[in-house]
Model the fold of this input.
Amino acid sequence: MKGRLGVTGTAVIVLLLLAAAFGPSLAPHNPVEVNLAARLTPPTRGGDGQPAHWLGTDQLGRDILSRILHAARVTVGISLTAVAVTAGLGVTLGLVAGFYRGPIDIMLMRIVDVQLAFPTILLAITMVAVLGRGIGILILVFVIAEWVRYVRVIRAQVLVVREMQYVEAARATGATDRRILAGHIFRNVLTDIIILMNLEIGRIILLESSLSYLGLGVQPPMPTWGNMVNEGRLYLQTSWWVVTFPGLAIVLSVLGLNLFGEALRGAYDPTGRE
Done:
């Protein structure tokens, strides 16, 4: 069962990456071109001189499939950039805190405790309200909001690994702290880092979609799944496709990432295997 779920998650991730890489080239229409004559067209294959709109059009006549494909590049680009920066910062601080302990560890963990006491979405909304809007600001907000998760998880793993016999043996042979951290501890927590990064991509996709839905994320006319849902919510009862398809894109992407992360954890964690 876990194997099938892992394959499903992998397939979703591959499709997501392909959509981000090649989606704009494959999009059948201009995602921001307004065509009021075709507004709220239901999903259709076209014909009789009419263009195909496989997922229908929105309230301004823009092709939903094209907008979803373009939005994939925006959402995936923001998520991957934010996760890369956040992981670099959080993992470094987690390694240092767990390995050296002492005042640095105490001060850092108190900061982590305080930040984790605030709901992530509330913290993100507050920072966007203070710092402003834009993709660069949005990535900075995600880094500030999410780095603490890496610190807490990696620090906990380092506290275990640093007491292992091979680390003690490395110390006894005169290995430097830098060599121990890079050659022994980092390698043994790398799997946890990869799994956490995978799950964090899903979290940031949800967070970005939530902020865009609230009008605090990526601003129109640039499409993202969140602002597509926001723009189409008034037409949910009469034109279900306007909200349904971008909403499905969010759900399937996050679900696929979570399934892949669970399969990866099961493969590398013997205690999690059946």
